[in-house]
């Protein structure tokens, strides 16, 4: 699926593009409302993530013009504006959802998935690899008839690894995706969550392991 992100904070825009690409979206990023309109009016996107306060044209004006042109692409507003009347203004312009800043990466991704599902683009509830299943609805790992619940952070780590089996996921990628692009979190917290997940994989007899690659990151692979 292809997403357009419009955000005038260059650092946040770069982070958002990175996060969505890690989650297998094709992404275009722009830094002002004029470019956002020019890109979105093509109708080539499955979803729009628009900052409200942007130079050139604000997000509400962008979406209002798109709807007037008959562009029905689902849209999510990101904004620091939290007054009720401002949220109503955005929704009345044709937005599908509204997420105030600051926000967490998991909530943003969940809201985008929900927005796209409403347009008949479905994300599977289950991720599977090597006989292991991760249930996105219940946050459970299962293998055969055994299962283990995961905490929210453990789920996010495991989801990321299962989306890229056999590939190195760096500690930096995990921190950015789960704790946020500007979080002040020590890298040891990733090791703690990986350690907990390994114990749960062992408890359910899963024929997969999380291998640490020195100076690189972590790999989910078959074999124990």
Structure description:
There is one protein chain. The protein has two domains: 2-117, Rossmann fold, CATH 3.40.50.2300; 126-222, Arc Repressor Mutant, subunit A (Orthogonal Bundle). The chain contains eight helices and eleven strands. Helices cover 40% and strands 23% of the residues. The strands form three sheets. A five-stranded parallel beta sheet has the order 2-1-3-4-5, sandwiched between helices. A four-stranded antiparallel beta sheet has the order 6-7-8-9, covered by helices on one side. It has a two-stranded antiparallel ribbon with strand order 10-11. A hairpin with a 3-residue loop joins strand 10 and strand 11 (217-222). The protein has 224 residues and is of the alpha/beta class. Helix 2 (33-40) runs parallel beside helix 3 and helix 6 crosses helix 8.
Q: What's the structural blueprint in terms of helices and strands?
A:
Blueprint: E1 2-6, H1 10-22, E2 26-30, H2 33-40, E3 47-51, H3 59-68, E4 75-79, H4 84-92, E5 97-100, H5 105-117, E6 126-129, E7 132-135, E8 140-143, E9 146-149, H6 152-163, H7 171-179, H8 188-203, E10 208-213, E11 217-222
Parallel strand pairs: 1-2, 1-3, 3-4, 4-5
Antiparallel strand pairs: 6-7, 7-8, 8-9, 10-11
Note the main attributes of this structure.
224 residues; five-stranded parallel β-sheet; 8 helices; elongated; four-stranded antiparallel β-sheet; Rossmann fold; Arc Repressor Mutant, subunit A; 11 strands; single chain; 2 domains; alpha/beta
